[in-house]
Amino acid sequence: PEVITVQELANRMAERGADVIKSLMRMGVMATINQTIDADTAELVVAEFGHRMRRVSESDVEVGLKGDQDIDEDLIARAPVVTVMGHVDHGKTSLLDALRSTDVASREAGGITQHIGAYQVQLGSGGKITFIDTPGHAAFTEMRARGANVTDVVVLVVAADDGIMPQTIEAIHHAKAAQVPIIVAINKCDLPDANPDRVRQELLQHELVVEEMGGDVLAVEVSAKTRQGLDKIEEAILLQAEILELRANPNRAAEGVVIEAKLERGRGSVATVLVQRGTLRVGDIFVAGAEWGRVRALVNDRGASTDTAGPAEPIEVLGLNGTPMAGDEFAVVETEARAREITEFRQRKKREAVAAAGSRGTLEQMFTRI
Ligand code: GDP
Ligand code: MG
């Protein structure tokens, strides 16, 4: 039976009617805004937009908006998620490595670190920060292009001996487009020809006014080499996180984003997932883009097996039936049947998109898999 009009479905998902019509068209359903559609079709559309649907009765459906079901009192503070960006050779990798070694928990555990695409640092103060360990603009823009907003704060690395360079400007544009606050790490301050004042001046030309000049952009002088200023940059990130009031409900089915995924010999398809809300558990059935699986094991950034992963935690997930793509949405679902239904629909849509776009689509897919 037809249960809902296109308009009503769009309203319940808080999406534009035109986008819902387009989604229907891609499924081969021609419908106008006032037409009614059946529950099966509605459910596929809802899944397509990344929301959830429940059949309340024969004649009505309830749409659970992604993240919107959480009521205020269920939300608790979560760690900020940070991406490091900047010009080549300005010290992104060095800074990420240096920050990583400030983690007190892994020092206690013996310090074997795994590179899984993201890591979380526990500070002596008790605060936590999650860093996306794949620096660079490609990761950031690709995720954004795929609709994934993983980053709360961008740390912009600028070498004090080199100043603002083309990729610095590019990074500023990306962060601004994503409306993500920027903290500037003026790096390599140990060098004799370091000139942090010049960096602050140059930032002005890109509408980043640092605090010292009466603006609201935090800029910290650091050295990834001597480790000068690492605590200050962490403080600045936590301060920014407080301003952003980052919170999530840990007591619900997990949702998040795939940070990276690959097929590994002996382990099968492995995805690093950033949990954004809820708690992921061993045994959970989940959908990741056009793939699904049942969590066989969870491995954290210290290489340790764990039973659960909560909000803002990066975690390696084993048990996938295929390899998803970076930026794919991740969500725990109730049943295997549901997981199959969603992924079969997405697989079909993917094949259609590739066929429609011809070689261009295939190329794009190749690129996003690299
Ligand atoms: P990326 O391309 O931005 O990831 O930069 P890297 O982290 O690979 O660093 C580029 C070069 O700068 C390497 O040779 C690093 O050893 C060096 N470097 C990075 N940070 C510092 C620093 O704080 N001081 C000094 N003197 N050299 C640094
Ligand atoms: Mg690098």
3D architecture notes:
It is found in: Cytoplasm. This is Translation initiation factor IF-2. The protein has 370 residues and is α+β, with helices and mostly antiparallel strands. Helix content is 33%, strand content 28%. The protein has helices at 6-13, 17-26, 39-48, 92-100, 104-109, 137-145, 166-177, 196-204, 230-244, 336-357, 359-369; strands at residues 2-5, 36-38, 52-57, 60-64, 76-77, 81-86, 118-122, 128-132, 153-159, 182-187, 219-221, 247-248, 255-264, 268-277, 280-281, 285-288, 291-299, 305-306, 308-309, 314-320, 329-333. The strands form six sheets. Strands 7-8-6-9-10-11 form a six-stranded mixed sheet, sandwiched between helices. Strand 3 and strand 4 (60-64) form a beta hairpin. The longest helix is centred in the last third of the chain and has 22 residues, at 336-357. Residues 366-370 have low confidence and may be disordered. The structure holds guanosine-5'-diphosphate and magnesium ion (MG). Residues 86, 88-94, 187-188, 190-191, 223-225 line the site of guanosine-5'-diphosphate. The site of magnesium ion (MG) has 3 residues, from helix 4.
